[in-house]
Amino acid sequence: MNEAALEKAKAQVEALGKFLPEHGRVFLIPHDYPDPDAFASAAALHLLLQKRFHLQGQIVFTGMVSRAENREMMKHCHYRWHLLHQLRAPSHKVPALFVDTHPSAGNVTVPTFAKPVAVIDHHPATRKAPGDVGLFSDIRRGAGATATILYEYLTASEIPVPPWLAAIMVYAIATETLDLSRNCTQEDLDAYAALLVRANMKTIGLIRHAALPRSYYVQLQDGLKNAFVYGRVAWAHLSDVVQTEIVPEVADLLCRMERVTWSFCTGYREGSLLISLRSSQKGARCGALLKHVLRSVGGTGGGHDWMAAGVVSAEKLVPERREELRETVVKALVSRIEKREVQRESLEAAAKLL
After folding, report:
1. Which positions ≥6 away from 242 have C-beta within 8 Å?
2. pLDDT tens digit string along 45-85?
3. Could you write out the DSSP letters of every residue in 87-146?
4. Per the count of CB atoms within 10 A, which of 18, 30, 72, 222 is most buried?
């Protein structure tokens, strides 16, 4: 970190401290289905609270973690984590820090007994709810990973990062930036390089090559068998989602197909239609596109320029209506992507004439 960045990080840590209690417990809340960046950032924040502010952090989330690599990563975390339904509701509001998400993002369950006090994130904040006012907020839309922000906080606080934490933070930055090839800033590169020399390399290897359950291959086969390609768009539907993370995995895989620049995957799980959208196009604004499409069918979504996720409740729908809902979402996505591609090609053609 250069001197200017270090001073800025110190100021941010000082500002965060003003929103924290003097003692007691603090919830650390990632989004409902935490990915490596969310969980590694929560663990780093746990260390910061412990060493800098002498507070007891408690990682809490709703949902599940089913992707093999993510489950392996959580095995190497030295801090306990809790599912929301496992907690006894306290008699008073507990301060809560939201990491890699924010209370009004639509992808996080805010406990009724939590008092939001801070947000640390790198996703664009698309809207503000009344509860967002008065929070400490460090939302860096340009950052490749939230873990990079937490690395700066730890460095500014002169807190050494233990090898196990360095390993999962390295893995988080790599996965969030597609191995430093996508939306990777100089700050991400600096954080990755500094953490890599401290990381337990065996831990990284175990995470990257975690054993995969048989159900993974069954669902992968299902996704590839049901894949479609239209122009530069590829998509697939999973008939029955067992592991939530298989939806984005299939979307990622389809986006690597030759001459495909957009991909998405849908799948039903427990009465909800899950959608993951990907693009390799610069300025694709996947988050805004998916949010617009899902808003029309009562769903929520969001994300980055190059990747996004969303969900639509279909719990009360009969099978026929569920299929109609899926077809509506698919047609709307393909239509809006096609319009984006036409606009992009027109702009490129115009630029060549200048």
Report:
1. 66, 215, 219, 269
2. 999 999 999 999 999 999 888 889 999 999 999 999 999 98
3. SPPPSS-EEEEEESS-TTSSSS---TTEEEEEEEE-S------GGGTT-EEEE-TT-S-H
4. 30
CA gap 30, 122 in Å, rounded: 12
Nearest to 301 by CA among 286, 283, 314: 286
d(CA 176, CA 304): 11
Contacts of 163 (CB under 8 A, 6+ apart): 198, 199, 200, 203
- Buried b / exposed e across 272-303, counting CB within 10 Å, b at 16+? bbbbbbbbebeebbbbbbbbebbeebebbbbb
pLDDT tens profile 210-250:
999 888 899 999 999 989 999 999 999 998 888 888 999 99
Token pair recorded at residue 317: 């729908």
Task: Report CA torsion sign: 12, 13, 14, 15.
Answer: positive
Strand partners, 118: 97, 136
Residue 308 class from Cβ within 10 Å (0-12 exposed, 13-18 middle, 19+ buried)? buried
How many whole angstroms separate alpha carbon 276 and alpha carbon 64? 17
pTM: predicted TM-score of the whole model, two decimal places: 0.86
- Find tokens 């279909």 and name the residue: 314
The Cα 244–Cα 254 span in angstroms is 17
Radius of gyration of the CA atoms of the chain, in A: 20
The alpha-helical segments, DSSP class H, found in the chain are 3-17, 36-52, 68-75, 146-156, 163-176, 186-196, 201-208, 214-225, 246-255, 286-295, 319-353
Among 176, 151, 156, which residue's Cα sits nearest to residue 35? 176
Report pLDDT digits (tens) over 286-338: 988 999 999 999 998 888 888 899 999 988 888 899 999 999 999 999 999 99
